[in-house]
Amino acid sequence: xxxxxxxxxxxxxxxxxxxxxxxxxxxxxxxxFPLLPRAFAGVRRIGVLGWGPQGRAQxxxxxxxxxxxxITVTVGLRPGSASVADARAHGFTEEDGTLGDWLxxxxxxxxxxxxxxxxxxxxxxxxxxxxxxxxxxxxxSHGFLLGHLRATGDDFPAGHGVIAVCPKGMxxxxxxxxEQGAEVNGAGINSSFAVHADPDGRGTDLGLGWSVALGSxxxxxxxxxxxxxxxxxxxxxxxxGAVHGIVESLYxxxxxxxxxxxxxxxxxxxxxxxxxxxxxxxxxxxxxxEGLDAAGREVFDRAYTATYGPARELxxxxxxxxxxxxxxxxxxxxxxxxxxxxxxxxxxxxMWAAGERVRARRxxxxxxxxxxxxxxxxxxxxxxxxEFAERGHPWSEIVNESVIEAVDSLLPYMHARDVAYMVxxxxxxxxxxxxxxxxxxxxxxEQIAYPAAELPAxxxxxxxxxxxxxxxxLAAAAKLRPSVDISVA
Length: 489
Description:
By secondary structure, the protein is of the alpha/beta class.
């Protein structure tokens, strides 16, 4: 299990009560910015390689937070990159040394943050490693590269620190909430951090400083392997893939029951991204059941206990395939097969056309929580929580990857755009995973869970849900919740 107790020579740390003990966390905020030069001691230049959503957000946040510190943030792009113009538009230029060729930037930086697409990192990491100056620290925001290195029998180069800071939300939100933080201290996206290799003993403070500079409200510790597994599994399960499968299956169920298209969309997709997500975010997972009347609870109980088993089986299968490299290999193979060709989109089906009509007619309408929909979603979320707990993940990581990132980051974005938009516009790794596993959840629920929901509820599963330790962990995490909701404008 990941050790969650650590110390810092720079930042004041706090403890968070979790089931079975406590975890050390760092509460962020702009009042800590004056400490950043100490955290980044020995770093004069940070090279950010890549200009995708995370690269664009992190480069700007780091630059703005470190203004006046003497630390330069430079963006490195591959020759011919179409992102050069946008990087210049955001103030990174060749003339002042803050924009350049990726390998040149890597060679001239003390901290090299690798924010290239996963497939690009898999293909070009050795070129980057060869360019590094002695003692330079390798920074990651995702553990995918570790999985790839292990699958190919390779490793990070000796003599270099390897740290990770992994925001629990999309790059656009990392930037937007950082900007909100100028007015509301504590606005931002939570992050995990990991110290994978630390030859000079500065990895913890460097990772914490990086997270503070990104604007993270709080930062929790993990390992690169644990982050990779929880992140990839989460994308394929409750964060994206399972959500796609859930709303497709529920929309079809409600249409077959006689609902018109907008009503079926409201009872499925709109309900999850709206009232269900808000209820969990503000009051916890148990509150979705507690807020129902007696008839609604009876529906919830039958649907929850019918869904939990099939959901747990699928999450366990996903976890096994992530852990043994199968899922990673499927991504690499798909990238090779697709090349530069665009992936087909899911957003053209009649369901998503109904979504456009529903969003157009919101006008302040308040939808009640749909009991059956809430049960299916809560059972899937709990199944992922239980799988992560059984596999030894710390509670801070479990609640962030299974609950907080969903209800405070991704679902509000899906509410503003829709689930199909998210699937069609997220990273290729997440998109490939959602398209692979979403239909599996849909089929399992249509063929196994929903027929079983006609049977009496399993009281043992309901007792376990009522007394679940996740409720304690979420209550502790809620005390560190950002003071503003995510910006999706």
